Amino acid sequence: MSSDSHGERKPEAELGLLDATMIGMGAMIGAGIFVLTGLAAEIAGPAAIAVFALNGVVTAFTGLSYAELASAIPKSGGGYAFVREVFDDLSSFLMGWMLWFAYMIAGALYALGFAPNFLELLHVYGFAPAPDQVGAVALPLLDAAVPISVGLAFTAVLSLVALNAASAAASGSVETIFTLVKVGILVVFVAFGALSPMFSTAEFQPLFPADGGAFAILPAMGLTFIAFEGYDLITTVTEEVENPRENIPKAIFLSLAVTVVVYLAVVTVAVGTLGAQGLAEAGEAGIAQAATAFMPTGLPVIQNGGAIIVFGAVFSTLTALNAVVIASSRVAFSMGREGQLLPSIGQLHHRFGTPFVAILASAVVMLGSVALPTESAGNMSSLFFLLSFIVVNGAVIRLRRERPDMRRPYEMPYYPVPPILGIVLNLVLTGVLVWYLVRTDPLALVLSVGWILLGGLAYLGLNRWRSAGETGGTGTPADAVPQEDD
């Protein structure tokens, strides 16, 4: 546990470059690659390969902004910390409020995704019936029954919350191990697929579908863009990374580069073995069906192609869940430390040295979000991420203007082209998403607006409480709360 020049306790820098990189990759290489590939092929045909490549390029523009800001402002909290540095109090609060919620909602989604995949894994090895045949557990005290899948989702969240609350180093190590395992699984998938006779006779022509042509790429990009969200999580743990001014930008670029390579290899093999039409017909089970088609049977532990994909899905959801538990708590911790949430949220535990209260607060909302419809929760998370990316690109432009001589160990090339392109492209995707929500998912739009309004009320309430403390009334201002002793 360390302290700054003012005696304020700071998190220990216990994570290396590999750990930081794995946090980004763990969040990005989630269940998306397993379920979105078939859907992308259905829309864009063999050009699904180009869809993932172009999304990687689009994502890189905002990645450059995150890298420069992280090198200039080495503070935990991700986009919130950057916006706090250059925008006014209300703007930074709303940015943190949106990011915190987006990470917590994403955590609920990953937990719900983990449950059926884990049940399917038990089913593959004969330890449980098929997921759709698993019942519920009776709770006599509440006179209710809870589905097994919901219980597993709660268990996954609580287990990773406990791990994160006890040790930042341990949670980082788990993220590294789990991410390496799932990347290894995808490498096995690619290797068997590339060497199979099916791939040697692959047909990638015609590249574009007859209906839509090259323009079919655009809706497919919108569908799969969520698979590239995650590198931004690296900046939420900046102060817990060794030499952050250099390692955070490196981790952002490494995680993006490796993720794009993995995605392109997986999609190419899937299209090359099952064919775009076969992949499209398989839909969300496209990767699993492709693996079943060319993977040998009777392998030790793996047994068959379907089993290896189930393994990958289980590890993918767990690593993504662990990453957002880390990220959500660090955003809340940063806001508490800045006096924009309750001061206890911005303090480190006297024994564990972790943002204990921030982790627990994030867990409560995450567990409560399990009750939301899955599609609505996913849409809300995507909307808040896109909005935050727009603001972060604006922050790098404003910081360049207002502090041109500020120390920036990393400066993006061709400034200001990348952040401007980042703003424009994310605005387009935001507009498309809002239009989609108005037509198909008004609940997500209503809940999103409701969360922003709730944030406004919280902001006003905290300001009033802080003012009362400063003028001698009841309560204590956030910046007057003493830090705990080491």
Q: How would you characterize this protein structure?
A:
With 486 residues, the chain is mainly alpha-helical. It has a single domain, classed as Amino acid/polyamine transporter I (Up-down Bundle), CATH 1.20.1740.10. It has 17 helices and 4 strands. The C terminus is likely disordered.
Q: What's the helix and strand layout?
A:
Elements: E1 2-3, E2 9-10, H1 17-28, H2 32-44, H3 48-72, H4 79-86, H5 89-124, E3 136-139, E4 144-147, H6 148-166, H7 168-195, H8 197-200, H9 217-224, H10 244-274, H11 276-282, H12 286-294, H13 305-337, H14 356-368, H15 374-402, H16 417-440, H17 442-470
Helix pairs in contact: 1-7, 1-10, 1-13, 2-9, 2-11, 3-9, 3-10, 3-15, 3-16, 4-5, 4-15, 5-6, 5-13, 5-14, 5-15, 5-17, 6-7, 6-13, 6-14, 7-10, 7-13, 10-11, 10-12, 11-12, 12-13, 13-14, 15-16, 15-17, 16-17
Assess the beta-strand content as a share of residues.
Answer: under 5%
Percent helix range: 55-70%
User: What's the total helix number?
Assistant: 17
Strand count, sense and barrel status of the largest sheet are: 2 strands, antiparallel
Radius of gyration: 23 Å
Number of domain modules: 1
How do the strands of the widest beta sheet line up side by side? 1-2
What is the mean pLDDT?
82
Q: Which structural class do the helices and strands define?
A: mainly alpha
- CATH homologous superfamily assignment: Amino acid/polyamine transporter I
Number of strands: 4
Low-confidence regions:
139-145, 474-486
Compute the separation of the termini in Å: 7 Å
Any guess at the CATH architecture? Up-down Bundle
The secondary-structure element order is EEHHHHHEEHHHHHHHHHHHH
CATH T-level topology: Amino acid/polyamine transporter I
InterPro entries: AA/rel_permease1, APC_superfamily
Subcellular location: Cell membrane
Transmembrane segments: 20-41, 47-69, 90-112, 144-165, 177-200, 212-231, 251-271, 308-333, 354-374, 380-399, 420-438, 444-462
Protein name: Amino acid transporter
